């Protein structure tokens, strides 16, 4: 057990949406819990989930994760879960209202960034509020990334 004063933040990332930061300008991030069944948690612990094509939406005062892929747990037999079912996200009322306002008024999107297990072993989703990037913004991002890579190579060569 870790000493009381030390900060122990062990996050084991299960699934990550790597294209999200390229396709969207991230404004704010939130940590949300997931309502999962037992076989979904076991499947997540195996680490084969995929959230690259998923998104979140608000319906009836709740936030839902749609189109996320959690493969079936092989040892579950007939008690297995659906792989692409809608999953409810657990957020506080204030956060839900803030997200609904941003989506409805400002035209922003709710993008899942990654699923991970926190230090208590709970499955969490990092949810981002973002605006879609235009094509010229994406080009600018890629130019900047290439320049930084080239700059690091030159600095490494010269010492």
UniProtKB/TrEMBL annotation:
Required for rescue of stalled ribosomes mediated by trans-translation. Binds to transfer-messenger RNA (tmRNA), required for stable association of tmRNA with ribosomes. tmRNA and SmpB together mimic tRNA shape, replacing the anticodon stem-loop with SmpB. tmRNA is encoded by the ssrA gene; the 2 termini fold to resemble tRNA(Ala) and it encodes a 'tag peptide', a short internal open reading frame. During trans-translation Ala-aminoacylated tmRNA acts like a tRNA, entering the A-site of stalled ribosomes, displacing the stalled mRNA. This is SsrA-binding protein. It comes from the Bacteria. CDD domains: SmpB. GO terms for cellular component: cytosol. Belongs to the SmpB family. GO terms for biological process: trans-translation; trans-translation-dependent protein tagging. HAMAP family: SmpB. The keyword Cytoplasm applies. Residues 133-159 are annotated as: Disordered. The keyword RNA-binding applies. Keywords: Cytoplasm, RNA-binding. Residues 137-159 have a biased composition (Basic and acidic residues). The gene is smpB. InterPro entries: SmpB (IPR023620), SsrA-bd_prot (IPR000037), SsrA-bd_prot_CS (IPR020081). It is found in: Cytoplasm. GO terms for molecular function: RNA binding. It holds the Pfam family SmpB.
